[in-house]
Write a structure and sequence with these properties.
Layout lengths: L2 E2 L4 E2 L15 H24 L1
Antiparallel strand pairs: 1-2
Amino acid sequence: MIYSANNHNFIGYTTSTLQLLPVPKPETYAMLLAGLGLLGFAARRRKNKA
C-alpha cells in the first residue's frame, strides 16, 4: 500500500471518508457510573445476606 498525500487515501482502494464518532456527553458517563454503582451495591447486599 502506498499512501498518497494529495488525496489522503491509499492508492488502489476506493476513496472513503474517515468518520469520527461523537464524544459522549458527561451525562452519559454519569449515568453509566451510577448504574455500575447500583449493580455493585446490589451485589454487596446480596453477598451480605447469604
